[in-house]
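Posting this for the archive.
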Amino acid sequence: MIAGIILLGRYVISPLIAVVALSMAATTLLMVCHEKLIQPRVGARESEDRDAGWDITSLRKEFGDADT
């Protein structure tokens, strides 16, 4: 019984498997580096600007919550 059809030769499949494995490992490392090194320097100012003035009391006043 045939387990599967071989469309590409072993000389093509082996490098492709290596490239996929390396790209998966590199993606994880790059995401960690971005989270630890780049985002704290660049994203800190943006998050402070976006979150300014957004607390629960200002939201309740703005949208007219009946509990206030």
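Helices lie at 10-51, 56-63. The two ends are 74 Å apart (CA to CA).
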